[in-house]
Write a structure and sequence with these properties.
17 helices, 46% helix, EC 3.1.2.4, ECH_dom, HIBYL-CoA-H
Amino acid sequence: MASFSSSNGEEDQVLVEEKSFVRTVILNRPKRLNAASYHMISRLWELFLVYEKDPYVKLVILKGKGRAFCAGGDVAAVVHDINNGNWKSSASVFRKEYRLFYLMATYCKPQVSILNGIVMGAGAGFSIHGSFRVATENSVFAMPETALGLFPDIGSSYFLSRLPGHFGEYLGLTGARLDGAEMLACGLATHFVPSVELLSLEAALHSVDSSDQAIISAVIGEYSELPMLEKQSAYNRLDVINRCFSRRTVEDILSALEQEATNEVDDWIQASLQSLKKASPISLKISLRSIREGRLQGVGQCLVREHRIDCHAMRGEVSKDFVEGCRAVILDKDRNPKWEPPRLGLVTDKMVDIYFSKVDDEDWEELKLPPRPNLPASAFAKL
């Protein structure tokens, strides 16, 4: 019989089910769509370290309670810190979170994330870096950061840049949403399992006395399906995406999309243009450069760089778009952010360069990744 334990602290934000050789970790803030808090991040860090060292544990399952796996970080708490002149407090939370993502990306045991709901921001970090990502018909993936005056972080410049063609640039710049079938098609998910089969899948995984990824994959495969993409799926427009989002600058991407719009009446093109035009101009330029740099870097390098950019965004010395975007979208919800600079043409290369440099503050601490000896072969490919 399974035994349950809970985190010692705020509202039992992380629950654990222990059964045979498997540990199932459950994100438990359903009313907040399992938004990642410092408490949740700390508990996950603690559990994953313990399970990696425990020879009895062969597999870790991660899932969320309610209608979300995890809808992102607790942005309201971050903005509260910034507005109170304490951005470094949030920077330290990001630092711990990024160390957790690196641990997951280089984990020595299989991690199966069950993505039966919303997967955004930090939720993508908790799952995409792991071994197996199981999508369902309820899955909704997005990296909506440019609408918040931020950029796709949590190591996404690593995994977005490795999606087919320039699909990663499209997702990162527009914040477009994907369903479970699209997640599988582009590689964000490794399997698609109908939600009615999830309990049976978990029961099957509980009986596996192995950390062999091929064996785990075969078990999940027994419950998997190959869903059809919707006709209007963005992934069916990969040829247009590659033509447009391969361009050198954000301005060139917009021009290419506008040219496509003159050649063809397509609601998808118009939606993409609207998303780009509503997003923070400086966030768009940071995002494009970050994803492009990620193509040539390992996951650790991506996380270190992204932490730098996050710190600059929270510090607000070039632009305060992050606070303004969160105000407009999450706090006041007027959906009318006042971006600064207000137009792409006013965002200079020097402005963008600052975000990629070390923070000029003697009390600021660069992200230091945890040592990872005896890595499995699957992790070496990410370094």
